[in-house]
Amino acid sequence: MLQGKRIVLGVTGSVAAYKTAWLLRRLVDAGVETQVAMSASATRFMTPMTFQTLSGKPVFTDLWDARVDNHMPHITLSRAADAILVAPASAHFLARVAQGLADDLLSALVLARQCPLLVAPAMNRQMWENPATRRNVACLAADGVVILGPDAGAQACGEEGEGRMLEPDDLFAALTAFFTPRRLRGRRVLLTAGPTFEAIDPVRGLTNLSSGRMGYAVARAAADAGAEVTLVSGPVARAVPWGVRRVSVCSALEMHAAVMERATDVDVFIGVAAVADYRPAHAAGQKIKKDAETLRTLSLVPNPDILAEVAALPDPPLCVGFAAESENLEAHAQAKRRRKNLPLIVGNLIQEGFGGDENHVVLFDEAGAHPLPPADKVTLARQLIEHIAQLLEPEQTA
Ligand code: PMT
Is the pTM value of this prediction over 0.90? Predict the structure, then answer.
């Protein structure tokens, strides 16, 4: 989404400026043409040389910079940009932009812009809560400025509260989302991801090798497309994608309860989780001794089929399944799709789908098989979300 975009990355005076170096690194890696402009106080925290080295371009700090032919860097830089992102944006900078002041390069190029402006505030919690800052931020939001964050937590000054700049990876995700077509705007998407864990006793259980990567990628792509996303996740240690609400569960029964509580209230349900088909009939309260008969011959009972149950609701959401098969992908996936009464199922081979960053999937619907080129899971997730958007609104097909 970001490749080839031209971003002016503004940096103002805050200790959070050290994190902007990592954001810049990510932008450059993603093929973004990034031009850095710093306020004078930002140069107290980070040197222009750091950003110049990372971006491979001269960094601008001065309204009167003679390196630009027309001596008007504020016009030249702002005209060349698809967006301006100021991270960190100090309280002072936000106040100046709200007032329309243009007394340094960064504020002047923001005032002269013809492109969207995104700001990532960073300041002490009391400064953030101050009515003056609240007024300025409300004024900027009303002017169409996109406010990213801030986060709450421990602050560099030693206090705790709201005012931390969003983490660089979250800012990168937010910028990606900003440039993603909002094909699912106003839609609510519920999905499952990861494995389930079926307890045998307090230390043992039945589970599988799902890493959650595919499901988390689909959640992220849906959120980037503008949907309100709830991710019911089995036990995996993954960061929650920006803008996604996670409900953490462990067993299939917990996943079932979390999904059924929400399924009547959504437009789309996507089952990416590798849900255990069976669970031990009784989870022992105490650790079972290794020579106990119950451990040698585990007695299992079936788990509810969450996806089939959602698809069987009187007014079901659009239900999309996943099928991981070790052979005969088309036959098995199509059989699953029909048995669960789904318009669409995503087939992948176990050897390719489980665990890694890449996958090779085939979409199966009533018309047949539609293979997608092998790709990383984030790319595949975006293609799946585009396909789902087309199913929801065929007339808006791109
Ligand atoms: O997490 P990763 O490491 O990235 O791996 C991704 C994946 C391989 C797990 C994923 O791409 C995938 O294929 N998930 C489905 C795994 C599977 O084959 O599930 P299944 O055949 O048991 O179930 C078919 C569908 O029904 C799935 O959508 C599943 O979520 C759903 N199901 C299954 C059983 C059950 N009790 N309830 C369900 O909702």
Answer: no
